[in-house]
Amino acid sequence: MQKALYRAHRPQTFDEVVGQEAIVTALKNQVKSGRIGHAYLFAGTRGTGKTSCAKIFARAVNCLHPQDGSPCNECENCRAVLDETTMDVVEMDAASNRRIDDIRELRDTVKYPPTTLRYKVYIIDEAHMITNEAFNALLKIMEEPPEHLIFILATTEPEKIPQTILSRVQRYEFKRIPVTLIAERLQKVAADAGVHLDADAREAIALAADGAMRDALSLLDQVIAMGETDITAQTVERVLGTAGFQAFAPLVDAIVHERMSEAYQVAWSLLRAGREPQVLLRELTDFYRRLLLVKGAGDALRLPLSEPERARLDAWAADVPMRRLLDGVDLLIDADARIRKSEAAEALFLAVVGRLIDSPSPHVLESRVAALEEKLAAIGRWQTPQRDWQDDIAREVAAQWERFGATLNAGVMAHGEAPATEADDIKRPQEPEKPAQEAPGSVAESAFRRDPERFLREHRAEWQKRVMAAKIVVPALLGHYQSIEVHDRHVTFHYPPGDITAGVLRNKEEALSRELSALVGEPLEVHIGKPSAQQQTMFHAKQSERESLFHSPAKAEAAQTGDLAPASPERTSGAKATPSAAASTSGETGTQVSAHVDVPDQTARDASEPGLWEKLQAVIPPELLKKED
């Protein structure tokens, strides 16, 4: 029976090992210097020379006439190892000898000295398959082995080896073999087999081997079995089931330029030609890998491509952005993991082709979601007021009312009269007044309907407490209305034109209705609106009457006698106070008494310190602060 190419052309000396120069140099130097270790770990992907190097090393340490660190393969010891006639070099498969009983038997055997060779060498392939219990049984003999014993562990998954074992071995990492070196080795093997392998065919096999020399030789064995003496890339594609660059290029071109109809036509024709969806998906992934390299490195990177292929890759890379390539690679890798377990591989491949053309980028979706979350957070900061800025606004409004009330009190005290009771209400609006002792239900209902403004003023503490607990709005804004109109079950709070409070409260009508109904004791519907023309006229008349208190001596005298009392804060919240002087003349002596009242000017106050409008601008989203016309 003829040997397979990967067995017939297995390296016999260190010089024949391809692509592992650093490891070969280290092992040869150990043989030449005689500084042999007791345990080695050869790790790396499949087909990279781990077992071949282990066998060469086993012969080299026992060779009677080593040549530059490599075995001569001619002496008695080398021939005994090559012919497998000695019991001192043992190669065992850990996949079938992984139990603790197998390792115990091995441990009892290795303590005996070699029969004919200098060292007894145990090569354990697929060492990661050994169980933890078996590794624990092997640990003691690996920690303190006899001088004649050498362990060589070979594995493709070194991460599964316990750390207690890894710390007691010399570890060598076998890397994937470059495509150019595999292609050169294939040319030599093909020449020995009496066939001609052109450059494109060598490259196709080397790329399909994915860095494994054994896989490349196995594929070459299949290609030679086709019976052709002149092997081309088309022959290799028929054996591998791949489409090849020329057949696959139209699909990639249609995907890059987002031509959906053409892409599906090419993909369907490839599937109807008998191509496997898994193979086509891997080939498409390889195209994207090349595009990434060309896009990222440009001309500085020399890929094993012909000039026409490189020109087409350059054109595609120029037409597609890097972000789209990265998203495409993520999509292809996920699809490759799914297609292996899927029973609808063909449909999955077609879906991947469509998604590569028409699929939103995950990064774009993430940015949109982040923008929406930021907007919701801004709205949430207003709809659910935080304690810090809520208290700041409340303190600012209260401070302004206190300054305004103090000014009015000073004007009245200048005439020798104590401030009126309702002026105290202006002076300290933030201190809650004790509500009238009215029972809920019919009594509260009648009081509210008789005079809703007085009812809310007398129950201000409870009203503000309810609004605060429900997190509806800053309680300081509740007293800015001009008037309240009650019609049936509808309660309308009227605000002056241009007042921002109306715009803020208009979205809170449902919540305010719920809390006001609970306070009054009957179901009510709150509406936020502008006052009618008649109400505005009455409001301005009352405001003018209040302001004339400080200009008219007669009204100042009336204020001294208590006939004219200052207005409540709810009534004066929209008024604009200006500095004025009140003068009165004594009836009998004619002596003129004047008092200067320092009513704060809004313009001066805004220039000296932030006002309510600035406070609201700092914490409320701009779209909620649109003034009403």
Description:
This protein is α/β, with parallel strands linked by helices. Strands 2-3-4-1-5 form a 5-stranded parallel beta sheet, covered by helices on one side. α8 packs across α9, α9 crosses α10 and α21 (442-450) packs across α22. The longest helix has 27 residues, at 387-413.
Quick structural summary:
The chain has 629 residues and is of the alpha/beta class. It is built from 30 helices and 12 strands.
* Assembly state (oligomeric): single chain
What structural category characterises the helix and strand content?
A: alpha/beta
Percent helix: 40-55%
What does the largest sheet look like? 5 strands, parallel
Radius of gyration, whole Å: 47 Å
Strand content: 5-15%
Question: How do the strands of the widest beta sheet line up side by side?
Answer: 2-3-4-1-5
Poorly predicted spans: 417-444, 558-609
- Assign an overall shape: elongated
Beginning-to-end CA distance, first to last residue: 99 Å
Supply the number of helical segments.
Answer: 30
Mean pLDDT, nearest integer?
75
Number of strands: 12
Keywords:
12 strands, 30 helices, three-stranded mixed beta sheet, 55% helix, elongated, 629 residues, alpha/beta, five-stranded parallel beta sheet
What's the helix and strand layout?
Elements: H1 5-8, H2 21-33, E1 39-44, H3 50-62, H4 76-82, E2 89-93, H5 100-110, E3 120-125, H6 132-143, E4 149-155, H7 163-166, E5 170-174, H8 179-193, E6 196-197, H9 199-209, H10 213-224, E7 230-231, H11 233-240, H12 244-256, H13 260-272, H14 277-297, H15 307-319, H16 322-339, H17 345-357, H18 362-383, H19 387-413, H20 421-427, H21 442-450, H22 452-458, H23 460-469, E8 483-487, E9 490-494, H24 500-505, H25 509-520, E10 525-529, H26 533-547, H27 553-561, H28 569-572, E11 580-585, E12 592-597, H29 602-608, H30 612-619
Parallel strand pairs: 1-4, 1-5, 2-3, 3-4, 6-7, 9-10
Antiparallel strand pairs: 8-9, 11-12
Helix pairs in contact: 2-3, 3-4, 5-6, 8-9, 8-10, 9-10, 9-11, 12-13, 13-17, 14-15, 14-16, 14-17, 16-17, 19-20, 19-30, 21-22, 23-25
